[in-house]
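For reproducibility, we list the full input for the zinc ion complex.
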Amino acid sequence: MAARDVHSYSEPGRVRVRHVDLDLDVRFDRRILEGTATLVFERIDRAADSLVLDTRGLDIAATEAPVDGGNWRAVEFSLGAADPILGAPLRIALPADADRVRVRYATRPGASGLQWLSPPQTAGRKHPFLFSQSQAIHARSWIPIQDTPQVRLTYGATIRTPSELVAVMGAAGNPTSGRGGMYRFSMPQRIPAYLLAIAAGDLAFAPLGHRAGVYAEPALLDRAAHEFADTEKMMEAAERLYGPYRWDRYDVLVLPPSFPFGGMENPRLTFATPTVLAGDRSLVSLIAHELAHSWSGNLVTNATWSDFWLNEGFTTYIERRIDEEVYGPEFAAMEAVLGRQDLEEEIERLDDHDEILHIDLAGRDPDDGATRLPYEKGSLFLRSLEELFGRPRFDEFLRAYFDHFAFQSITTADFVAYLKEHLLSRDSAKAAAVPLETWIEKPGLPEEAPRPRSAALEEAQRIAADWTAAKVPASELPFARWKTQQRLQFLRQLPSPLPLPRMKELDAALGLTATGNNEVAFQWLLMSIRAGYAIADARLEDFLTSIGRRKYIKPLYEELSKTAAGRERALAIYGKARPGYHPIAVDTMDRILDWKG
Ligand code: BES
Ligand code: ZN
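The corresponding predicted structure, in tokenized form, follows.
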């Protein structure tokens, strides 16, 4: 399982960190974390006399090791040159008998893996908020660590916050009541660095069952608990399919709207965008997705970012299996159809080398590999195996796969070897029908890739055609009885750009500019930009300045930037919105908009 990780300076083949203890002050006054990380390691190479850690923008005050009988003494360290993508290697000299080192350090206010929010950027507007986002390689911006998914570690943490705030981590020990400014956590299951997670703010907790719950700012707690009420059912469905949930608790933390992702599968504590709080549970397949990572990703982990599809493709497949169990086959089918549509659009945009599941990311930021491709192509690949070998056989295979590789990090080659041995070799006639190499190493989609179908979406598509041909007036559209996914499909299937009078007609009948569903709002705002529909201008500006989810803001700014006037608007809005965006979103948008400040 030794694959070279081009995104880490650490040399886990020589010395491997097994455990880390964090002792950190959350300093909202200076927007830094400050304290120590104590790393317990194993010398794989007995002669190794240094430990190399990944860092990015950390201020290292000292490094120490216990010498002769446990007294901590300063040991030498050197910080290498900083690479714009990888950060800087921290090399620490190891005394011969030491099995641990302690790094005294502080983060900087611009740390790429942290966002520090001022009170007005929160729902309650009274308290500041901090949250981390470590995937792919941002853990190194808040912890000096071997930041490669090949290294798994347990951890403990003592976190101090202002006394009125609550700290939580992706670990055991999250408080369900009470505050006091001092929190202790421990994580007994071995995880890769990209799953290290922390947040602090004015948080309250609501249980969702005996082993699930939700953390949110008090103003959002009831809405969140209502939205995520099916969480236990999802856990039970996933366990029926893939074996026991191995992380004890599953809680969800609802973040402020600047969270740049939909969700992040931090173990025991999924981080989620508040933009899924639609009121009708229509967007909760996000929870199915992050929960699915408890098997694909967190239990069996990609060994390098070239193997990212092992995380996201498997997870997208499992997400839809959970959807099917909890919400029925039609719901899962709608999600699968929309997913394949997204994939086809993505393939039109991407260069060939970015359409390969086993992607080459050398010299690039691994976040560049996080397109829809590994999600949807990976999921279609697994679905093709399911269709060929039959559901019972394939379910059995996947379940055994998770048991076999539990708590390990594996490469694409490891998966392929396991697949051949445990599925393909048992039925050579069927195996011959699997274009394995084409799926994994070639761009585009194999001709035989599954084409999911959904009667509910076909109805929406038909009605979109009828309305376009003026066979049905907007006032008679069955929008009110449609599911969110049907509404999305209806909008996606309309001509683009839609003539202004038709935009007006739709808006008047369906109230689209005012919709509270963020997926629908996003689709409508894209259409509004394309159509030059000025009535939605204010809504667009409000959307872009209040939400920082990259999936929404990136396409909207890109669409605006297609005309000179639009680009001017984009820059004007971005100027206002930028201070509220997360560093990861700022990085993406600065590049796209060629922002010079
Ligand atoms: N692990 C990802 C988020 C991620 C990927 C963060 C790569 C950084 C780098 C998470 O599980 C995810 O896929 N989130 C999706 C939502 C999901 C429902 C498809 C997202 O944020 O859009
Ligand atoms: Zn995911």
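The first strand starts at residue 15 and ends at 27. The two ends are 45 Å apart (CA to CA). Both points were considered when choosing residues for closer inspection.
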